[in-house]
Design goal:
single chain; alpha/beta; binds magnesium ion; binds adenosine-5'-diphosphate; six-stranded mixed β-sheet; Rossmann fold; 9 helices
Length: about 270
C-alpha cells in the first residue's frame, strides 16, 4: 500500500479525482450499469473486481467518454464530464460540451487496454511519440526526448528502436503504458492490462503499475490479479450485474461480507 498517497488523499479530500454519482448505462433495453457510485481520491489506487459482464469496462469507458451516460453524473478533477451547467430563464440546465471541450477533458485520462494496439509499423519510440506530436503538436525533438524518458520509466529504454513484433507481450504492454504516460494524464485507467499476457509476463507489467502507484499516480485498475489488489489498492470495488456489491479497503479481500464477493474470490484465488 502506498502510504504517501494515502496521506495525500486524506489531506485533499476536497476535490476527488473521480466522482461518479448514480451512473446508469443502457444499450437499448440492456441495462448494464444500474446506479454506480464511486469516489476516487487523488493519488490513490482503486481496483475494480467483478465477474465478466458486470459492467467494469463500460464504467471505465464512461469515465473516458468513449461512451455517453444514460443517467447520473461523473466529475473528473471536480469538473462535470460531457456537460456544463447553464442557467436559462432562471432554470439550471445541462448543455452538451463540444468535441474540442470533450477532447480537453479526455486528455486528463490515460487508458491502457487488454490489447495493446501499438502501431506495428512504428518502433516503440515512435509509438510513444505519436500522440504528443499529432494531438499536442509537440516538436519532434521534444517528443523524442519525452518518449525516451517514458520508455525508461517503464524499463524499456534499451528497446526504444524495436518494432512491436520484436517485443514480448509484456514489453508491448509496457510501451502502451509509456504511450499513455507521454500525454501526462492526471489519472490512469487500466482495463485488464495483463489478461492477454502469458503468465510469466504478467509480473513485469504489474511491477510497472506498482511503481506508478508509488510515484503517486491516481489509478483505476480493472484486474483479476488479487495479489496486486491486496498490495497496491487503497480502495477495492466489487461489481456484479451493474451495481457495486461491496466496497472497502484492501482488507475486504481477506474478509468479504457479501456472499457474491465471497463466491467470486473463491473462484479467482
Ligand atoms: P465487464 O468489463 O465487467 O466484463 P462490460 O462492461 O464489458 O463488462 O459489459 C457489460 C455488459 O454490457 C455485457 O453484457 C456486455 O455484453 C454489454 N455491452 C458492453 N458494451 C456493449 C455495446 N457496445 N453494445 C451492447 N452491449 C454492450
Ligand atoms: Mg471488461
Amino acid at each position: 500500500m502506498n502510504t504517501t498517497a494515502t496521506a495525500a488523499a486524506a489531506a485533499t479530500a476536497a476535490t476527488p479525482a473521480v466522482r461518479a454519482v448514480q451512473v446508469h448505462k443502457a444499450y437499448g433495453s440492456l441495462h448494464v450499469l444500474k446506479g454506480v457510485d464511486l469516489t476516487v481520491a487523488p493519488g490513490t489506487v482503486t481496483v475494480m473486481l467483478g465477474p465478466s459482464g458486470s459492467g467494469k469496462s463500460t464504467f471505465l469507458r464512461l469515465i473516458n467518454q468513449l461512451e455517453t451516460l444514460t443517467g447520473g453524473s461523473i466529475e473528473v478533477d471536480g469538473e462535470l464530464i460531457g456537460y456544463r451547467h447553464v442557467t436559462k430563464n432562471g432554470r439550471d440546465m445541462l448543455q452538451t460540451l463540444d468535441d474540442r471541450e470533450i477532447a480537453a477533458q479526455r486528455a486528463k485520462l490515460g487508458m491502457v487496454f487488454q490489447r495493446f494496439n501499438l502501431f506495428p509499423h512504428m518502433t516503440a519510440l515512435e509509438n510513444v511519440m505519436e500522440a504528443p506530436i499529432h494531438v499536442k503538436g509537440m516538436k519532434k525533438a521534444e517528443a523524442r526526448e519525452l518518449a525516451m524518458a517514458e520508455l525508461e520509466r517503464v524499463g524499456l529504454g534499451e528497446r526504444a528502436g524495436h518494432y512491436p513484433a520484436e517485443l514480448s507481450g509484456g514489453q508491448q504492454q509496457r510501451v502502451a503504458i509509456a504511450r499513455a504516460l507521454a500525454m501526462k494524464p492526471d489519472i490512469m485507467l487500466f482495463d485488464e492490462p495483463t489478461s492477454a499476457l502469458d503468465p510469466e509476463l504478467v509480473g513485469e507489467v504489474l511491477n510497472v503499475m506498482r511503481s506508478l502507484a508509488d510515484e503517486g499516480m491516481t489509478m483505476i485498475v480493472v484486474t483479476h490479479e488479487i495479489g496486486f489488489a491486496r498490495e497496491v489498492a487503497d480502495q477495492i470495488v466489487f461489481m456484479a450485474d451493474g451495481v457495486v456489491v461491496e466496497k472497502g479497503g484492501p482488507e475486504i479481500i481477506d474478509n468479504p461480507t457479501e456472499p457474491r464477493f465471497k463466491d467470486f474470490l473463491q473462484h479467482v484465488l
